[in-house]
Amino acid sequence: MARPASNNVRVALEYCVKQVKTYDYENYIWVSQLSKEQRPSILALRALNIETALVAEQVKSKEPALVQVRYQWWRDGISAAFKGSAPKHPVLLALQAVLPGSAIKAYPMKRLLEAREADALDTQPPLAVDSLEQYAEGTASQLLYLQLAAVGVQSREADHAASHLGKAVGIATLLRGLPYHAARRRSYVPMDLAVKYGVSQ
């Protein structure tokens, strides 16, 4: 794995550290315990996860067309990073720096973006627990696949475990975020469960 050296990359990685520390502190703690060789890749990936999760909040009007434009920008930026021509965004520059020599692939990032975009555009509560699992697989599980690839773990068993763990982590994160989402008039309580237990959305 290529070690980031240039000043631009150093600044980009510092930005990633700040984002992860601010928005994802629990994961920042364990990432900070990794080796110096492993840290940049994981920080870049976790910062990418944060940036793409914040898109809906950053588009104040919540206009579907604007949300789609932002996610397309990220798709194009990721593709450019894999080609070595990332736009001047710190997360994409950090990502570009850690790609050479790694097993990181673009596909899980595309799955992550698709899940985030679909969630941002569909503000209705999920119909069933299956919908939550699909969202968690598209976000948390994809991030775990990327992290495994970043540290050189290529194993069907590890991917299988990451799939299940990602679903659990994703759903637990949504449950923890219930007050946050409720304040924004958003519910992730599946409608079938709400009906079954008489819970008002």
Automatic annotation (TrEMBL):
It comes from the Eukaryota. Pfam families: SQS_PSY (PF00494). This is Phytoene synthase. It comes from Haematococcus lacustris (Green alga).
